[in-house]
Amino acid sequence: MKARERIVRVAVVAAALALIAEAALSVPGGADYAKAWDRRALFASGLVTTLLISHGALALGLLLGGAAGLARSSRSAWADQAAVTYVEIVRGTPFLVQLYILYFCVARAARLQDALGSAEAAIVGAVGLGIFAGAYVAEIVRAAIESVDRGQWEAARSLGLSHGQTLRRVILPQCLRRMVPPLTGEAVSLVKESSLLSVIGVAEVTFHAKNLASASYDTFAAYLPLAALYLAVTLPLSWLSRRLEARLTPTPSLPVTRL
């Protein structure tokens, strides 16, 4: 069955690639992909910027999300409600709206441009992306903690361990294995969502594709290579996420999805 699934998967992927290639080559009026090739240095630089921002945002998201997820499992009502408020506000509003507020309201009010200069947009964008990711990481952490059998909490407490010791020594080591696959999936989402930073002038890969489309009016030559670049990054990460899920998670995936 495994071999048959692989054969079918390869056939489906090959058919999809053939259809995409046919569509790309049969554009009405033709598409001059040489224009994108001539700007390959800009596209490469933009892709590096995309990856750097995504890595920084993921690090911030892990920090904020880990703290919020642990707060959801703490005995402090204040910490729990603060974490709930953060998660609900961030998950309840579009990232683009949050980005506008951070860049055009908060950053302007704080006069960050005076301190950060030309790096202001990239830094604000990375911070905004990290805050957005943190809300989803918090739910991953919370779901992982709650997925551990309640009997293990009771057994640890019966041995004299405090709530914090139980969480640190018994619960979290088990949670780490369960969190790795969905966190890898969150990294994939961050790479894709970083494309929205182009609206505030961050020179990532989508920004350069939009500039090419505006200058040449050749949208196919600008956006089809852009899609290929994103797929080149996200497909290996998606494959890694599935492999980690199959290897590390004996139970079904954590029920954390985009709203």
Short description:
The protein is mainly α and 259 residues long.
Helix-strand makeup class: mainly alpha
Helical fraction equals over 70%
Fourth CATH level, the homologous superfamily of the domain at 49-203 and 239-248: MetI-like
CATH topology of the domain at 49-203 and 239-248: MetI-like fold
Q: Which parts are unreliable, with pLDDT below 50 for 5 consecutive residues or more?
A: none
* Major sheet details: none
Q: What overall form do the CA principal axes indicate?
A: flat
Number of strands: 0
Distance between the termini: 34 Å
How would you describe this protein?
The chain is mainly α and 259 residues long. The protein has a domain at 49-203 and 239-248: MetI-like fold (Orthogonal Bundle), CATH 1.10.3720. The chain has helices at residues 2-25, 34-38, 40-72, 77-91, 95-109, 112-116, 120-147, 150-158, 163-193, 205-216, 219-248.
